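=== Structure Prediction Worksheet ===
Name of assembly: unnamed complex
Input type: mixed (protein and possibly other molecules)
Chain count: four
Listed entries:
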Amino acid sequence: MITVLFFAHLQEIAGMEKLTLDVDQISIKSLKQKLKEEYQFKNLDQIMFAINEEYATEDEIIKNGDIVALIPPVSGG
Amino acid sequence: MITVLFFAHLQEIAGMEKLTLDVDQISIKSLKQKLKEEYQFKNLDQIMFAINEEYATEDEIIKNGDIVALIPPVSGG
Amino acid sequence: MNQNELFKITKDPINIEEVTNKVIRREAGAITTFTGTVREFTKGKRTLYLEYDAYIPMAVKKLAQIGQEISEKWPDAITAITHRIGRLDISEIAVVIAVSTPHRKDAYDANEYAIERIKQIVPIWKKEHWEDGEMWIGDQLETKRYPTGKPEEEDLV
Amino acid sequence: MNQNELFKITKDPINIEEVTNKVIRREAGAITTFTGTVREFTKGKRTLYLEYDAYIPMAVKKLAQIGQEISEKWPDAITAITHRIGRLDISEIAVVIAVSTPHRKDAYDANEYAIERIKQIVPIWKKEHWEDGEMWIGDQLETKRYPTGKPEEEDLV
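=== Predicted Assembly ===
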């Protein structure tokens, strides 16, 4: 099981703060595909991903128990 | 009459905060000479002068009622 | 001084003095403090208020990482950063960055480095609220906007 | 806001927040605050405390002149400066400079300009007190010193 967190406009699109997926392991790339096919996300091109609070690349593998976050371009400061 | 103000180490050399000179008008250059000859100041080369709170050049004339200040190199901040 | 408190995300108003005091020390003669406030007009458009969202634990980690990067580039520098989230009205403080160094030049440079890095790597987002709408601002250059409050068709394709 | 209060020489401790608040305004999104404190060690030598002297009315005028120069170079900048005089212990605040601008880059540049100008034109002097003596520091580069507390023979000739 992995947890996927949404922030900012992605949270509004998703209509939720988080999603729990019953998968044992999945690459960022595959998760992205899954979110586009099975959820409301049509474009995630500009979105970064974090695994357990660290930025992750497309080919990194999310494992059971990990927390993944979708990070849209930031605008703090 | 003009008033001459001393600060920092010049105040310590002069042993006073100010001096009143009974002159009607005098150039900065002449005042400098006078301070060296008649008072304890041996060297005023690095000292700037201000007339009525504005920096003044050597040839400017101090007039009756003016306040002159000897400004050693500053070290604020 | 608790190291954890140098980098903070808060829902409460930020006190400039408090953040600055965290980095004042006997060896440092210069402290620069950057305060980012909510500006009323951006490119002629009037902001009513802002809303900030953050991925809090990761944001705190990334602020600490910026502090670490600064310590590597300017070995004698100490950094403290507090960023506020939630609703902020005009002139309210969104972020305070304080950097202390023995000499002043470094304090300016390191502080400017910190704000640039915040706008690159810290997961915090702002939503602008105008008279005629609202949008999540998409990146540091503010070139990516969602005028309807959600991404446009072109952003979703 | 009383224009006179933007530039101040004081014998009392300086409050960073108070000086910074003078320049916060709806149009400004960025405020930089420089805080100069008394550093314990300078080039390996330990300072016990400092004493600042100023030609107060002229110093206030010159601080205001710096604010004016900044307004000319960075038209949307507002500056406030407070400098303390009298005896200051280690870590106490000698000067606080706050500059607000619509955009951050200017706030850093203008603030740095202010501290450089203070060290050039504002009639304020510091006397260092060490364990083994005291001296009036003679200029901004701190190259001119009077180790006996008064100018040496070479300075007086």
